[in-house]
Amino acid sequence: MMQRLTGAERQLALIISVLTLLGGLAMAAAGRADPLGIHGWIVVLFAGAVFLITLGSIYDPEPREDRAVSYYDDPTKVGLILALGWAVVGMGMGVWVAAQLAWPDLRFDAAWSSFGRIRPVHTSGVIFGFGGNALIATSFHVMQRTSRARLAGHVSPWFVLLGFNLFCIIAASGYLMGVTQSKEYAEPEWYADIWLVIVWVVYFVLYIRTLARRNEPHIYVANWYYLAFILVVAVLHIVNNLAVPASLTGAKSYSAFSGVQDAMTQWWYGHNAVAFFLTAGFLGMLYYFLPKRAERPIYSYRLSILSFWGITFFYIWAGSHHLHYTALPQWVQTLGMTFSVMLLVPSWASAGNALMTLNGAWHKVRDDATLRFMMVAAVFYGLSTFEGSFMAVRAVNSLSHYTDWTVGHVHAGAMGWVALISFGSIYAVVPLLWQRETMYSWKLVEWHFWLALSGTVIYVFAMWNSGITQGLMWRTYTESGTLAYSFTDTLVAMHPYYVARAVGGALFLTGAVLALFNVVMTIRHAPEKRPERDYPTSSEATEPAVPAAE
Amino acid sequence: MEILMLLIPLTLAMGCVGLLTFFWTVRSGQYDDPEGDARRILQADDRPLDHRQSERRGERTT
To answer: Which of A140, A300, A313, A161 lies closest to A223 in space, CA to CA?
Structure first.
């Protein structure tokens, strides 16, 4: 992996790993027995491993290949495997959390395994670990292909990928120790947040620099979605994580805002994390890999651009729908509700655009499970965006809020849309990157598809039933005007659905394990294939790497 | 609700960045050939050479 780096680049990597290692030592010294100190040692271990790998090849010969005539795919490859690894960890934690809700004894009486600590390991594991790595890896792939240019840098993509994974490790290990700032999807404490800002700025600069050296005048629409994802997440992350550390020698910090002010900031962040992390970024994936796999151009390119600008301008205002019937001023709630309903237009434009692209190629969807992953992802995207707009209406929200319906909605999006489009894209790109004929086993891809689909459907139906039952029980009054059901009554009513949810999650997890196995076997055992047409044009090289004779 | 004094201007500012980017895309001809843009990602071999290369190629043929 290091042989593609020049000597100067290896030295730079060495310097960065030493600086990170020193940062880790400083944290360990300052934090001592505090979780901050333990995180310091984790940073030291991580940076130390990178340092040793780099040092081991520091005297290797300079790369002899002409780097301008090929794409730089090593970070993409590592990112895809990391994504699948995190998928197994994050979904595994999810199944455990779901099982704890059905059978609370599964906590085994330890502090670290309590629901409040392992649930964020599940959410961060799947959103940031699986989703984030899949986004970073595929964005490296897509930005190079659509720009017909090599990545603008050889150290920075590694810094982005490994730095982001260090953030994920700090986050997950912190939750188990009870480190959290109690903000949904933004639980990591101040030092992890600062680190992520650095990583994210490098990511943005890398993307812009790669686009700047493009050999194709047009910037393909997928890049706009990825760029919106990177830029908006940066701003959201910085504002929502404004906090004052209680001391520089401990992990604990206090938010800069209080009460409903803090809640508004949190959901301005939280909903846009859904919008720009879990939607815009994965739409970038959809707009590149679905046409590629179907071998058909997107049905309406104009519509894809219209929905991009629609999402960009509408989504950011929708966050206050998370705070209906709270201390938030009524007009702010109504504003959020209005924009949430308007969002249905650009959302369905994308979902419809994807399905219309496949119209006329349904035989491919029938035969190819990889394409079917993407098709079902588009369907779930359409379903969950409709459900989201619906649930944001204040009257509907009075029934759905605080119930399992919300959990079902989130998982229709996360499992049905985010995970399925990622799996589809991974199956599409792995044979190309490792130059294999096909995946190791198409039967396993087929199995994965049906496991994932049935798991999602079981999960979502269980939560719809549970949520609506729960919501109705909470608002049922007796003739004398008292509540008809106690909280325990609702728990008893939900138990069968909680068992069903754990089963659905287990099916989904099984599919993810098959995916990891299949990808590893593809890399190790699938027959090799040299691609005929996979190279950038270059401004320096007069001839392409592979003659364009065909 | 003094937080809105921060969040609303900030959100409007992000919208303005989006709007300026949109104007840039219009002015730099990003939307001149949507049909071709959609098709070009499918055909890696049918690639437009960048202008320096086409100039060099031009010199060779003339």
So the answer is: A140
pLDDT at A534: 59
Alpha carbons A221 and B25: distance in angstroms, whole number: 11
Q: Say how many C-beta atoms besides its own lie within 10 A of residue A74's C-beta.
A: 20
Distance (Å, whole) CA B60 – CA B62: 6
Structure tokens at A468: 């609506």
Please report which helix (H) or strand (E) contains residue A243, including its range.
strand A243-245
Calculate helix-pair angle for A133-147, A281-294, nearest 10 degrees: 60
At A404-432, the pLDDT tens digits run: 999 999 999 999 999 999 999 999 999 99
Contact assignment for A257 to B18 by CB distance below 8 Å: no
Can you tell me the distance from the alpha carbon of A192 to that of A168, in angstroms, rounded to the nearest whole number? 9
Interface contacts (A, B; CB < 8 Å) = 95
A74-525 adopts what CATH topology? Cytochrome C Oxidase; Chain A (1.20.210)
Task: Quote the radius of gyration of chain B (alpha carbons, Å).
Answer: 21
Per-residue H/E/C for A49-98:
HHHHHHHHCCCCCCCCCCHHHCCCCHHHHHHHHHHHHHHHHHHHHHHHHH
| Domain boundaries of chain A, sorted by first residue | 1-59, 74-525
Distance from C-alpha of A170 to C-alpha of A159, rounded to nearest angstrom: 16
Give the pLDDT mean for A3-25. 95
Chain B nearest-CA distance from A219, in A, is 7
Burial of A41 from C-beta contacts in 10 A (0-12 / 13-18 / 19+): middle
Q: Look at B14 and A235 and tell me if their CB atoms are within 8 Å.
A: yes
**Alpha-carbon dihedral of residues A112, A117, A121, A123, nearest 10 degrees?**
160
Average pLDDT on A438-449 reads 96
Looking at the complex, report in whole angstroms how far the Cα of residue B49 sits from the nearest Cα belonging to chain A.
7
What ipTM score was computed for the predicted complex, to two decimals?
0.86
Q: And the tokens for A547?
A: 């003659």
Check: CB of residue A41 under 8 Å from CB of residue A22: no
